[in-house]
Amino acid sequence: MITEKRVDIQVNGQACEITVPAWRTLLEVLRELGHKEVKCGCEKGDCGACAVLLDGKVVDSCLTLAWNAAGRSVTTVQGLGGPDNAHPLQTAFIEHGSAQCGYCTPGMIMAAKALLDDIPEPSLKDIKRGLSGNLCRCTGYTRIFSAIQAAAETLRQQETTS
Ligand code: FES
Ligand code: FES
Q: Ligand 2 pocket check: which of 105, 131, 141, 148 to mutate, most ligand atoms within 8 Å of Cβ?
């Protein structure tokens, strides 16, 4: 029985080839690769802190086996942008004070990215539904929802001017 194999995963556009046992989660592998921006909360699919995009769809990386990511593309919050090229969601989270301890923020932003890719003009209900797998102990959610609405507007403006 094969218990370990080499898998290649694209992480934020960079090819990574790693040998992993069958039981290792994508979350564990990403953090071992240095992607500490992917947070480990509950490790059972309850909190969404570990959310990343896998081929553009949001997944809880703690519930995804690394083997299932073989040959696929993973995007973490770091892959969206950074201080010099922030994504509108990242900018809006800062401007709206949507992070307090910040532990939920990477997962929140990735869930929001997937939502806005699907629904560019979301209602508040859409936003609540899109983030229903992500928990925040600090903010009370209102500022997070406002940031997502603002980012959606910015992205729509960018779309019309491009
Ligand atoms: S750490 Fe993955 S959902 Fe909580
Ligand atoms: S900002 Fe602390 S858990 Fe969300």
A: 105
